[in-house]
Design goal:
mainly alpha; 2 helices; 0% strand
Length: 98
């Protein structure tokens, strides 16, 4: 059973800039990972992933790209946010969430 930790208001406020910075970095990392994965899925075909309003792609390919991109983005974001919270806890002794 997880241990519930209390968070002071000052810890939440101090964590905000760190959380924002880690979210930006996470988005950039996720974008790079998606580009690599999408390039491999397309097996040598170059180009950016299809956007919803580009008529030269069929719906299946647009939805596949969106699903892969969303999965990568949220997994990377969760990993980076969790790691940032753990680092903050090690530095300050307080968990920044909840």
């Amino acid at each position: 059973m997880p241990v519930e930790e209390t968070t002071s208001r000052s810890a939440k406020i101090l964590y905000r800039p760190w959380g924002i910075l880690s979210s930006v970095v996470g988005g950039m990392v996720a974008g790079k990972i998606f580009q690599l994965v999408w390039g491999r899925l397309r097996a040598g075909q170059e180009g950016d992933p299809p956007k919803p309003l580009e008529s030269e792609y069929d719906l299946k390919e647009v939805l596949a790209a969106a699903a892969v991109q969303g999965a990568i983005f949220f997994v990377v974001r969760a990993a980076i946010n969790r790691g940032g919270a753990r680092a903050f806890q090690r530095w300050t002794g307080e968990w920044p969430g909840d």
